[in-house]
From TrEMBL:
NCBIfam families: bcct (TIGR00842). InterPro entries: BCCT_CS (IPR018093), BCCT_transptr (IPR000060). Keywords: Cell membrane, Membrane, Transmembrane, Transmembrane helix, Transport. This is Glycine betaine transporter OpuD. Pfam families: BCCT. It comes from the Bacteria. The gene is opuD_5. It is found in: Cell membrane. It comes from Virgibacillus massiliensis. Its main location: membrane. One of its GO terms (molecular function) is transmembrane transporter activity.
Amino acid sequence: MIGKVFDYYMNFKLIDWPTFLGALFILLGVSLPLIFFPEAGAEVINLANSFMTGNFGILYLILGLGCFLFLVFVAFSKNGRIKLGNKDDKKEFNTFSWAAMLFAAGIGSSILYWGMIEWAYYYQGPPFGVEPKSNEAIQWASTYGIFHWGPIAWAIYTLPALPIAYFYYVRKKPVLKISEAVRPVLGKYVDGPVGNIIDILFMFGLMGGAGTTLALGTPMIAEGIHDLTGIPVTLGLKAVIMLLCTVIFAVSAYSGLRRGIKVLSDVCIWLTILLMAFVFIFGPTVFISETTFSSIGILADNFFRMATWLEPFRDLAGFSETGFPESWTVFYWAWWVVYAPFVGLFVARISRGRTIREMILGTMIYGTLGCILFFGILGNFGLYLQLSGTFDVIGFMNENGAPAAIIAILHQLPMAKVVVGAFTILAVLFLATTFDSSSYILASVVQKQMKGEPMRWNRLFWAFTLCLLPLVLMFIGDLEALQTASIVAGFPLIFIMFLLSWSFIKASNHDLKSSREFKNPTIHISKKDKDVNPKSKN
Ligand code: NM2
């Protein structure tokens, strides 16, 4: 008995309560009013969306392009040649498994959703004032998806990995919290409320991003189940699906992180490869290859135009506003940024033995290539159905909604029931792994110390808490509400991203300088892979 009480006491003491409660209160503060006053809530959400995108849209776009340029600069600077690890550390993972893990960590069920259907939105609501459903609209439809999942997006993901990996492998100070990663800039303030606030904002961001993900993925799974069993799609079914995913996660968490989640993510990867190969082979193979290849060219040609386009004249008379950058590019950069610190923690963990340059170029190139594969195959299959007149995806989508359209597109393949079954299982597994990884990170941020892994009750608590926001968002129901979750939650992270890059530059420049001045013998520029290894006491 006394032992139990002591255990509870120790558990209690391990939690960083200001951060725990701060994050919980913000979540409840956002979700509860929306549950009790859904109509007024929907209005407030719309207002928040147009306020943020209308006034601060430019900040998100600067963030995106800024991350990209900054990382390219770092990759080719002296700092980029710094090796993450000791002089003779080998790469911990070979490049193939490194790239696969990176992709699996950063990408979830949403790529199934948007990979299949994003083109349909662009085709009927194209950018740059182009005529909807015109030939030009087709080109943008197949290109914009890979832009929103391309090099800028992956640069946003990579940026937080820089300071985290640097502290981990070069300064040998493990970073479990984002607040720790900005210590070179904020100094001792990190140990006080400022540090708590940074961690709470990071948690709030992740909860918003996961809210968008879960509220998008769940209706798609519901449609799949409806297709296979005839059960009508209701909010009840969606709630059950989300709980089911949480329970799958809980069971796998209890069977031990290694085994449970490893099995799940391996199944995910193989099922994904199978599905893609199936669509590629049984779909219009030549059309898919050609369209994908051409859109890479269109993207390369228009990269900076797309990265900076904001419709500045939208409010002036005589200009018809498309709302495109606000609805898409701003939303996307926000959605990537809310996941970025979390993916950064993971990327840092798997990158021992690589140089910073290899880490940067690897994430940006392999990440982009992976997304091109998804969007190229899944998206262009749907586009082909539309253009060839085989199936009117757009008409169907406008009538029945995007999740139903996704399942209907899959129905155009041979062995449709099997394909829909595999797709639905895949989406469930992806969602379960999102619960897993997000709750892992949320739980670790609110713990003062960790012996290996965060406490189980703590992880389960955050896994179930994560269901709350998406439930509310699905109840409110429209795409704009889902997007707003990421846009609002991502805003503070723009500034945290700036601190993170500053922190990396400050620390690595300091170490490079001291290693030059003091002829630190641990510095290493090998002839073979030209890496530098500064090590300093600081
Ligand atoms: N991103 C990649 O929902 C998911 O699949 C997780 C989403 C940020 C658009 C990440």
